[in-house]
Amino acid sequence: MEDGNIGMFINYEHANHVYNVTVERRENEFFITYDNIEYTVTAQEIKPGQLNVNLGDRMIKCMISEGEDRKYVFINGQVFQVKRVELTGRRKTEKKETDLNSPISGTVVSVKTKEGESIQKDDVIMVIEAMKMEYLIRAPYNGLVKKINFKEKDQIEIGKLAAEIERTKED
Amino acid sequence: MFSKVLIANRGEIAVRIMKACQEMNIKTVAVYSDVDKHAPHVHLADESVSLGDPTPSESYLNIQKIIESAQKVSAEAIHPGYGFLAENPDFAKACKDSGIVFIGPSASVIKHMGDKIEAKKTMQKANVPVIPGYHGDKQDVSTLVHEGKKIGFPLIVKASSGGGGKGMRLVKTDDELEQAIEGAKRESKSAFGNDSVFLEKYIDKPRHIEFQILGDEHGHIIHLFERECSIQRRHQKIIEETPSPMMTPKLREQMGSAAVAAAKAAGYTNAGTVEFMVDGHHQFYFMEMNTRLQVEHPITEATTGIDLVKWQLKIANDMELTVKQQELTQHGHALECRIYAEDPAHGFLPSVGTLSKVEFPQGPNVRNDAGIEPDFEITPYYDPMLAKLIVSAENRTESINKMIWALSQYVVLGVTTNISFLAQVLEHPEFQRGNITTHFLETFFKDWTGGKKGELPVDALIALAVYDAMHTQRQELVRFKEADPHSPWKHVGRWRMGT
């Protein structure tokens, strides 16, 4: 947490499923993380609700409008009704347990911890870049970093174990 | 020509008719119920008259209120559109009795064609093929069983005054016949107060193909070719096209002549439609005559260049039909999709709500006939059809591709619509091959749940997050953060190296 940029944690609900997203704006760039992948995009609101979002060499064109308790997102001829679930207090939404295997083949951009360090659940261990997107390997539980299998600039293959964490015995 | 016409309807068809009137320098009068006070058809009209209570019987179906409205504003003619009072002979008569021109055929023609048994008898006399069946007055069960066995199986028992599948039975073998007749009679009695039924041969691989008719008051009757309307849900059309992919020049000639003969036999004037059932062997049978402008009339306009509504007004004004049958040709191919506020993934249940965004696709040969605009509220009082999208192109393949593209650009937010369902029907290989029957949707789309719609795509999440970040003020964030330590607004540090 090296600076004070303001970001948002947002939970979107669609068809009884909750999607946890973070978004941070820095001047004209937006950094969005979802499912341990970071997307860096620029965007333009052409007219109210009509967005063109540049994601690498791809353009997302969409239309968003706000209903009473939900937003409507029109994208590629389909409409999705999405509700924003505000987190009050410390209510947690259902979340998949993270995995220490790389979800993709790519390049290790940075390693955030060292062997022998203790680490908290959800701390970032490693950042992997592929196809202009960044994937985060997070600690699935509190523990001790036993081994880190890759260093910066290494190539990592999909499914390879990024690191080994010894789970801390609770209580 | 008339100087002022009242349009006794709402939605896209009222808008469509008003635009034709405006082109012809005819002043237009809208009628509206309380929930339609801010509807597009009211905005478009030169004058408007309130009908009050939105219940159809108290508003758009109320003959007395509509006649009084026309008298109040001195309208010379009334266009009924389709639905509501369009095929009500009492309304046509009430107009005439009040000295107002009803834009459509005479009350007696409407009445005659509205009685399905009478209409079929008239057609048989005019040598128009009708589905083999029994339409007699003798309604005792033993006569009906005897007649049914003469027709052969499978056959259908239908209520004479029926509709919507009520009082209808499919009979596959003769031992089911008696029970089916009794059941249909009971159901018809309770639904329509009349237990009269008729029997008909069941048509295999049926297509619904209709012919557009125009007739004037001077004895001229022409047809404007066919429309293929087999794609139906709950006996209601949702996609129509012309020419029909199964049509041959010879069959078109035969059916067109039969349609003109049918209209002549009925003494028909103004715009009308002769509906046929066509079986897998290209045998066609008269089904019924719709004595009004049809929802799907724009595809005929797109392929013939004829403006049917303007001709309705001219004919009602006693002008002669100058379009000759031999001068008419079809150009290219046209498709229409009906945009409904309904959920195809849940039994086509109507959807209500306020429209937050509406954007129509625009492009060459793309026509939008719409009765909606942003902020308009869709209520449960009336038919949930919002608009029609009509495209035309050189041939059927290009027309389908254009329609799929146009649907992908069609934005209606605020209610659930059938737009992505329509696109998937058009993408179906059997539809693309032209292998369609009236059973198409129940065969291929029976348990449709929305296709790809189940999961929220990551693109939508990215777009939403960007939108929400754009629309949240920095000051607001700070305020939230200070007010509630547990709020979702937090400092998020960038974890990336070197930034």
Give your account of this protein's structure.
- The complex is a heterodimer of chains A (171) and B (499).
- With 171 residues, chain A is mostly beta strands.
- Chain A folds into two domains: 7-85, Glycoprotein, Type 4 Pilin (2-Layer Sandwich); 106-167, RNA polymerase II/Efflux pump adaptor protein, barrel-sandwich hybrid domain (OB fold (Dihydrolipoamide Acetyltransferase, E2P)), CATH 2.40.50.
- In chain A, 0% of the residues lie in helices and 57% in strands.
- In chain A, the strands form two sheets. In chain A, strands 1-2-3-4-5-6-7-8 form an eight-stranded antiparallel beta barrel. A three-stranded antiparallel sheet of chain A has the order 10-13-15, with no helix packed on it.
- Chain B has 499 residues and is an alpha+beta fold.
- In chain B, α12 packs antiparallel against α13 (419-427).
- The radius of gyration of chain B is 26 Å and the shape is globular.
- The chains are: A mainly beta (171), B alpha+beta (499).
- At the A-B interface, β1, β2, β3, β4 and β5 of A face β18, β23, α13, α16 and α17 of B.
- β1 of chain A pairs antiparallel with β24 of chain B, so a sheet runs across the interface.
